[in-house]
Amino acid sequence: MSINKAKVSFVALALAASSFVAITSATTANAAPTGQWCKGVKIAAFPGGPQGGVFANNVYNGYVQAAKDLGPTVKYYFSDWDPAKMVTQWKEAIATKPNGIAMYGFMGPEAAKPLVEESFKKGIIVTTLNTSLVDLQAQYSTKGFGYVGAVNYKAGVDLAKEMVKRGNLKAGDSAFVWGLKGQGGDRGQRTVGVIDGFESSKLKVIYQEIDQATNTTPAAGGPTFAGIMAKNPGVKAVVTDHGGLTSTAATYMKAANLAAGSVYFGGFDVSPATTAAIESGYLNLVIDQQPFLQGYLPILQICLTKKFGFSGLDVNTAGGFVDKANVKTVAPLAKVEIR
């Protein structure tokens, strides 16, 4: 989906929701429609990472804007990208009796299933962002369970294949993939997609799982990156399957004493540091998931379901690639953590 199409889809959705509310308000109350039509609804929202962290802050900003526009009361749970912590916080959120929960699917379907079942049994709408829970979404979609985010496996494959094309990579070249293949459910599938995309082009993949310390604090991974690159001096391409690690690309390259452009470096998500790394040449290509929408739209989803009984929406936010040719368009919005 192109960036422009994603914008159009979002605007259309928002306008449709506003128009519906305006018509309903005027009809049922025989009065002029009012703003913040979701007032009185309580929502537990998960930005995903540490407070103020890359990607998580864009999602948080989307949540905050939706709360400002629509009027629900929102409580935020920051999880340090730790699936076990998300599960614990989900249980805590259920205990507060919200009307809805906006949650990542990082913990995978087995861990999520009893919590989804308990939530809906207690009248709590659950919807996911960033990482889907496909079977649970299908089971509860009529009750408001939707998904906002990328199709993760496809995003991984698409990035790898685009890097092969743009980076002039050839069969037999080595690619270092630093990812989260070990995470449950859909999240790990993006890393699998990257690996499959490279291997289908006959590249040799060197894989390293992101440890939890680096997952939470990307700068902690500098020695790991430098060590792997030193042991594999022939690496032609690098993928960091993590927004925070992607934003740290320039730091990693400098730690490994590698010049800008000496390897073709790709990753995910946009941030101020990411756009700066693209402009400097240390980072070459990223997929923009538009995380602001991954925050805004789940709040809208819960409000629409709670107020009007709408079923779950499924919205693909993977807006396209960002590189040196178009980064100047995105950078101003990345600076204020909207893109």
UniProtKB/TrEMBL annotation:
<dbReference type="GO" id="GO:0030313">
    <property type="term" value="C:cell envelope"/>
</dbReference>
<feature type="signal peptide">
    <location>
        <begin position="1"/>
        <end position="31"/>
    </location>
</feature>
<dbReference type="Pfam" id="PF13407">
    <property type="entry name" value="Peripla_BP_4"/>
</dbReference>
<keyword id="KW-0762">Sugar transport</keyword>
<dbReference type="InterPro" id="IPR025997">
    <property type="entry name" value="SBP_2_dom"/>
</dbReference>
<feature type="domain" description="Periplasmic binding protein">
    <location>
        <begin position="52"/>
        <end position="299"/>
    </location>
</feature>
<dbReference type="GO" id="GO:0030246">
    <property type="term" value="F:carbohydrate binding"/>
</dbReference>
<comment type="similarity">
    <text>Belongs to the bacterial solute-binding protein 2 family.</text>
</comment>
<keyword id="KW-0732">Signal</keyword>
<keyword id="KW-0813">Transport</keyword>
<dbReference type="InterPro" id="IPR028082">
    <property type="entry name" value="Peripla_BP_I"/>
</dbReference>
<protein>
    <submittedName>
        <fullName>Simple sugar transport system substrate-binding protein</fullName>
    </submittedName>
</protein>
